[in-house]
Amino acid sequence: MADGRMTVDEVAAVLAADTVAPETIELLAADPRAAVARLLARRQRRQEALAAEDRRLAGLYRYEEPLYAEGRRLVAGVDEAGRGPLAGPVVVGAVILPPRCRLPGLDDSKKLTAEQREDLYHRIREQAVAVSHTVIEVAEIDRINIYQATVRGMYAAVAALAPAPDTVLVDAVPLRRLPVPHQAIVGGDALSASIAAASIIAKVERDRIMTLLDGEYPAYGFARHKGYATREHLAALRCHGPCAIHRRSFAPVRGEGNLFAED
Questions:
Q1: Which residues of the chain have pLDDT under 50?
Q2: How far is CA 226 from CA 98, 136, 204, 205, 246, in A?
Q3: Angle, to 10 degrees, between the axis of helix 22-29 and the axis of helix 8-15?
Q4: Do 221 and 232 touch, CB atoms closer than 8 A?
Q5: What is the per-residue pLDDT across 225-243, written as a single tens digit (0 to 9) for each?
Q6: How far apart are CA 77 and CA 189, in angstroms?
Q7: Composition of the chain by helix, strand, coil, percent to 5
Q8: What are phi and psi of 206, to 5 degrees?
């Protein structure tokens, strides 16, 4: 511009940067143009949102931070996906994150959309020290019950981590036979970054399995409900009966009850 000021487009480009010098912000704040004021306000809102996300993410390390302070650097989180469904395997994920690893959007997998989980799944695998998952099939679930199958999967997922963890944080389930210290945290997938990461790995891996199984058993809609007891699924069960991947140890599969909640 003739008066030496940046154009509005130039201001927008400057304010889009991750960092802007304080003197530049001060200079732009004195600019009388309404468009510049709007751009500054937009940046301020964006910065506040980023700060709030940083605080939320820091809170997700409330269980890890004391362990880091003790010198532990290989803290594993463990969680499962698929305890509640009427069909398909249960999948256990285990993840060791670098200390204070920043993964914007990280949260309990149940709070995320499928697209958000897929994005975080890839970022977790890129940044994690170690990732593993274990699949416990339906036959095993029916043979030893879903709780014991989940516990077995958790031990296997921890054993598959390389390097091995020096501490394990697990969602709700105590794993007393682990050779390293562990802590079972009720609701841990919403409280611990490590467990939240594991919940995402488990959920994405299981959803992929159920989508593939939908191709083998198209009458049940597995790609949509992932084996949970939705009305669509229960109606298909009544119409077609159970297929090879239904959990016959579960009452609704035997026609003895109804269930609509996800785990």
A1: 1-2, 258-263
A2: 31, 15, 11, 12, 12
A3: 150
A4: yes
A5: 999 999 999 999 999 999 9
A6: 9
A7: 50, 10, 40
A8: -70, -40
Q: How many Å apart are CA 98 and CA 114, to the nearest integer?
A: 25
- Residues comprising the chain, all counted: 263
Question: Which pTM value belongs to this model?
Answer: 0.90
Angle between the 193-216 and 114-127 helix axes, to the nearest 10 degrees? 120
Tokens 């698929």 -> residue: 82
Residue with tokens 């339906």: 138
CA distance linking residue 207 with residue 222, whole number of Å: 9
Question: Where along the chain do its domains lie?
Answer: 8-59, 64-202, 212-254
**What superfamily in CATH does domain 64-202 come from?**
Ribonuclease H-like superfamily/Ribonuclease H (3.30.420.10)
- Interval 20-39: pLDDT, tens: 999 999 999 999 999 999 99
Rounded CA Rg of the chain = 24
Determine the residue type at 58. A
State how far the Cα of 168 lies from the Cα of 89, in Å rounded to an integer.
Answer: 23
Amino acid of residue 111 = K
Which of 78, 33, 91, 85 has the alpha carbon at shortest distance from 230? Answer: 85
